[in-house]
Amino acid sequence: LTIRAGAYADELVKTAKTIASPGRGILAMDESNATCGKRLASIGLENTEANRQAFRTLLVSVPGLGNYVSGAILFEETLYQSTVEGKKIVDVLVEQGIVPGIKTDKGLVPLAGSNDESWCQGLDGLASRSAAYYQQGARFCKWRTVVSIPNGPSALAVKEAAWGLARYAAISQDNGLVPIVEPEILLDGEHGIDETFEVAQKVWAEVFFYLAQNNVMFEGILLKPSMVTPGAECKERATPEKVAEYTLNLLHRRIPPAVPGIMFLSGGQSEVEATLNLNAMNQSPNPWHVSFSYARALQNTCLKTWGGRPENVSAAQEALLIRAKANSLAQLGKYTG
Ligand code: 13P
């Protein structure tokens, strides 16, 4: 029953299971310097390395965070960074029982020949970068590509997204990193939930086709899908029950039970909305661990509460812990508001 075992096979399975453990999910804190700059600007701070370090020190040092968070995705700068107090951020995470992860994609660029769509770069040199990140303590990684509904998606864009993810996943596994496979279907648009569902079915069919073709070991990957919701500008909104029904239907049709964990992105949903939707999806047993890998839906209140002021650090950490705990309960289907 060998499925392209590879030197790291057992470790990959173990890492994936640790991340997909009951009541826990992922803190996405891997904003690129440009995106992190936007977050800092929203609280009136300059986008300096010192400010990024201060905020990320705050996040990883939340006492007790490891009870609710099993993995943290970092941007390259943070993987090699120390806290304000001079301790390696990777070591702080490991002491908290949190697996360090790394964003390995190199971001989006226009996809020539498409309808104004994009593709994700980063395959060149990925093997050596992944090996170096492993040496630095990373055990999982993320590659985010996007699919736009209003701009298509064209068959070309979907194929490129799926193929890129599959190549990335195979290379990551070869170097000991559990790949998070993330084709984000963007929320933007006026389309209804049925259209999102149709697009998601196509995207995931292709992603798994190419993952199989590249001999990726499904037991050693994690997925990061968008929830199936109406477009952000669609007038008809969906209840958490409806989002859960559509999203679970999609997962059942497209995702093999060999995959250990499905860690949703929040994609611009409000903090509470993201928690309620996750909770609704965990009202009955699922074949996979269904959990969170949120950035904005974990960090928003925390960031605002902090506001860049040292005297607000504890209150900001408390705010993060409240969201982490709420989503932990939602992972267990026990969130009551
Ligand atoms: P959001 O939860 O803010 O969508 O970010 C998750 C993420 O890491 C997207 O790649």
From TrEMBL:
<dbReference type="GO" id="GO:0004332">
    <property type="term" value="F:fructose-bisphosphate aldolase activity"/>
</dbReference>
<dbReference type="Pfam" id="PF00274">
    <property type="entry name" value="Glycolytic"/>
</dbReference>
<protein>
    <recommendedName>
        <fullName>Fructose-bisphosphate aldolase</fullName>
        <ecNumber>4.1.2.13</ecNumber>
    </recommendedName>
</protein>
<dbReference type="InterPro" id="IPR013785">
    <property type="entry name" value="Aldolase_TIM"/>
</dbReference>
<keyword id="KW-0324">Glycolysis</keyword>
<dbReference type="InterPro" id="IPR000741">
    <property type="entry name" value="FBA_I"/>
</dbReference>
<comment type="similarity">
    <text>Belongs to the class I fructose-bisphosphate aldolase family.</text>
</comment>
<dbReference type="InterPro" id="IPR029768">
    <property type="entry name" value="Aldolase_I_AS"/>
</dbReference>
<keyword id="KW-0456">Lyase</keyword>
<comment type="pathway">
    <text>Carbohydrate degradation; glycolysis; D-glyceraldehyde 3-phosphate and glycerone phosphate from D-glucose: step 4/4.</text>
</comment>
<keyword id="KW-0934">Plastid</keyword>
<keyword id="KW-0150">Chloroplast</keyword>
<dbReference type="GO" id="GO:0006096">
    <property type="term" value="P:glycolytic process"/>
</dbReference>
<keyword id="KW-0704">Schiff base</keyword>
<dbReference type="GO" id="GO:0009507">
    <property type="term" value="C:chloroplast"/>
</dbReference>
